[in-house]
Amino acid sequence: MWRQRFSLIVLTSLVPVSYGFAGDLFDEPYIARFALALSRSTNYASAAGMQATVAYPGASSVNPAADDFRRPNGLGEPQTSGTITSIQAFAQSDAWFVATVGTISVRRPQAGTFTFAYARTDTLDKSTQQDLDNLLRSNEFFGGYSKKVSDRLSLGVQGRITDATLHDEAVLPSNGFPTRVEADILAGDVNFGVLAQLNGQWTVGLTAGVGKGSTENVVKNLTFVPLTSPPFGIPPGTTLSEFDDINWTYLVRSGIGFIPSRQIGTFADIEYMQFDSDTAGGTEVGRLFLGTELVPLDDLLIRIGTALDTNEQWTWSTGMSFEPLPRTSIALSYQYNAFPEIKPEFGRFQVVSISIAALF
C-alpha cells in the first residue's frame, strides 16, 4: 500500500524528531494506534528493506514524484512495467496478516509516468496476546502521476481509495466483559511529492498529503452479560451501540540522499503523522528513518534500514534485489518490530515481503 499502504495516510515533517510531543503512544485508543501502525507499510519489498526512501531516485520510493525521475527529461521510449508484491506479517501473539499488491506503471515520452495499483489485505490468524481476536480486511485502489519537469526536478501526485473492515475486541474496564467493535471504513487520501537532485551526489525529497475517512461502528458483547441475577442478562452477539466517526490524517515527510557512487547510497527521512478522530481524539507520532543501499555486483543490491519513533520504538530491516532474467527483478525484505504501535495487543511483528517486477 503502500507507496505507503493503507488509506489512513502517514504525516511527516522537516523538523527534528522530538520525544516530547507524542507522550506514551500505548495509552492512545487502539483505532488510532492501528492507523499509525499500518501507515508504515509499503507496496514494494525494496522500500521495506531500506525504510528511508523519500529522496530515493527510483520507483520503489514512497515519494510519488520518483516514478518518472530516472529517465532523461523528455527522452526515452514508451515503457510499461508490472510488479506483484506479497507481504506476510507474523506477530508474537500468533496473529498473521497477509497483503497482495499489484502495480502497473506506464511511461510515455514527454508525457510522464502513470501508475495504478490494487492491494488486498486479509487476516489469516486474528489472535491477540489477550486471547481475543482482531481482524483487518481491506481493498485499496491507487492512481498516480509523475513528471520530470527538468533535468534535476520531478513532481508527482498519488490518490488512494480504501474500503476496509476492522474488528477490535477488548475487555471493558468497567465490568470486565469482552466486547467487539466492528468498523466499516471508507477512506480517501491524496499525496503530493517533489524530488530534486542538488548535484551529482545529493538528492532531496518532500511529500505532503491529507486523508479523510468515514467509519460506521457497531459494538457487540462476546459473552453472556448478567443484568441482575442469573438467568437474566444480555446474550452474546447483542448489538450494544452503533455510532459513526470521521477521521482526518495529514502528511508532511522529508528526506535527503547521498549517493557518492553507483556502489553505495545512504538516505534519511523524518516523518510526522497526526490522526484526528471525532470519537478517539487526536494522536501524533514522529519517526526517523535511516537506510543504505549497496551494489556489490551489477545485478545485486543489498539494503539495510532502521527507524526510531517518538515512543522510543525501534524497527530494523534488511533486504536484497537481483535480476534472474533480463528485464526482470526480484526484491526480498525482512522487518523486525514492524508495527510497534500495536505491540500491546500483538507483540512484535516480523514482516517478510517479496516483489517480482518485469519490464515490458
How would you characterize this protein structure?
With 360 residues, the chain is mainly beta. 5% of the residues lie in helices and 60% in strands. The chain has three helices and 16 strands. A hairpin with a 3-residue loop joins β2 and β3. The radius of gyration is 21 Å and the shape is elongated. The N terminus is likely disordered.
Q: What brief labels describe this structure?
A:
Porin, mainly beta, 360 residues, 3 helices, two-stranded antiparallel sheet, disordered N terminus, 14-stranded antiparallel barrel
Strand content: over 45%
Instruction: For the record, give the distance between the C-alpha atoms at the N and C termini, rounded to a whole number.
Output: 23 Å
CATH architecture: Beta Barrel
The total beta strand count reads 16
Count the DSSP helices: 3
Task: Summarize this entry quickly.
The chain has helices at about 30-40, 45-50, 345, and strands at about 80-90, 95-110, 110-125, 135-150, 155-170, 180-195, 200-220, 225, 235, 240-260, 265-275, 280-295, 300-310, 315-325, 330-335, 350-360.
Write the layout of secondary structure elements.
Elements: H1 30-38, H2 45-50, E1 79-91, E2 96-108, E3 112-125, E4 135-150, E5 153-171, E6 178-197, E7 202-221, E8 225-226, E9 233-234, E10 239-261, E11 264-277, E12 281-297, E13 300-309, E14 314-325, E15 328-336, H3 343-346, E16 349-359
Antiparallel strand pairs: 1-2, 1-16, 2-3, 3-4, 4-5, 5-6, 6-7, 7-10, 8-9, 10-11, 11-12, 12-13, 13-14, 14-15, 15-16
